[in-house]
Amino acid sequence: MGTLIVRRLLTSLMIAATVLTAAPAFSMQLVPPGNRNVEQPNVPGASVRRTKGTKTTFDRKYDKVYELLSTDHELMGKIKKVSAAYGVDPIHVVGAIVGEHTYNVDAYDRLQSYYVKAASYAGQSFRFAYDGEDVDDFIKRPQFAECNGKNDSYTLWSCREDVWESDFRGKTVGGKSFPNNRFSAVFFQPFYAGQTFGLGQINPLTALMLSDLVSKVSGYDKLNEKDAGSVYKAIMQPDISLAFVAAAVRRSIDDYKQIAGMDISKNPGLTATLYNLGNSRQRAAALAARNRASGDTVWPEENYYGWLINDKLDELQRLL
After folding, report:
1. What 8-state DSSP symbol labels residue 300?
2. Helices 238-260 & 90-103, crossing angle to 10 degrees?
């Protein structure tokens, strides 16, 4: 236990030290536009199998979501408005939505279908739990004590996610074994692991992390892990979901500026990559540490998801 606490403390100190030294070390470098990789990185097998299972292709799914965005002027108006509220270029929000509906789910034909789907979840009873243990009880375990003083939802749930990774993932604790899987998949996706929801395809843990920012900027009620129904309502309702998409983009841009000294705001493929992968804080810290160690500049790279967005950027820009 002591070793794990020291390890987590060192990780936190590394991130804090990186934030304090980022500006003089990196002088806020602007990450160049475009893809770092000539060819698209491999698409994960799960995404390939899911797409084949629905008897479609990635090209067809891309065309479908592109058509939705190009014909639904109400939706595009909402995207532009919410992007302005969070101070991000709307192409980043477009990229996140296009990536999700190309590789993870198939787009509905019109915005109204998302409202109808959201309504179908209304009033249903959900809970965030694993093997009979509610997440609210789980985070009261002593391993999470170091997170108790963190008031902002982003730092609070990031801390809890770190504790899960170091103390519980794939381990047996107190006679109870825990899966070797992400915190969000184990406790926050009760239907099946990996499921995300709505227009923005946001998972519940991400929504909890971004709750304070979304409440501050958009005025929506803060979310609570004890009320899973409200979390699902937020990520299923298109209007609220779009706020979380924009907040996620804002957070990843800020993390890379503050921690790695890099401005990724002109590279929608990178923000799409981080939207897909999550953990922008940890990824920015790892990149900063790598650059300090090498004494050279290594740019962040897009994954298969972000590569598509950069590759299609001229076409996607025409939507705006």
Report:
1. -
2. 110
Q: How far apart are CA 275 and CA 273, in angstroms?
A: 5
pLDDT in tens, 216-254: 999 999 999 999 888 988 888 999 999 999 999 999 999
The C-alpha angle with vertex 178 and arms to 177 and 184, in degrees rounded to 5, equals 165
Token pair recorded at residue 237? 């309702």
pTM for the whole structure: 0.88
Q: Where are the alpha helices (DSSP H) in 164-303?
A: 183-187, 204-218, 228-236, 238-260, 268-277, 280-294
* Cα Rg of the chain (Å, integer): 20
Residue 84 tokens, joined: 């302005």
Structure tokens at 285: 């810290």
Q: Write out pLDDT tens, residues 141-186.
A: 999 999 998 989 999 999 999 999 999 999 999 999 999 999 998 9
What is the number of other CB atoms lying within 10 angstroms of the CB of residue 47?
A: 15
Cα distance between residue 86 and residue 79, in whole Å: 11
